[in-house]
Amino acid sequence: MMVQSSYWRDMMTLTKPRICVLALLMAVLGYSVGSPDGFSWLALIKSIIGIGLVGGSCGAINMYIERDIDALMNRTKNRPLPSGRMQPRDALIMGAVTFVIGTAALWFWSNPLTTYLGVATWFLYLFVYTPSKRLSTLSTLIGAIPGAMPPLMGYTAATDRLGEEGLLLFGILFLWQIPHFLAIAWMYREDYAQASLPILSVVDIEGSTTSRQIVGYTLALLPLSLLPTLWGVTGAWYFFGTLALGILFLVYGGLLAVRRTRVQARKLFFVSLVYLPAVGALWIWDRVPRVF
Question: What is the mean pLDDT of the chain?
Answer without folding.
Answer: 91
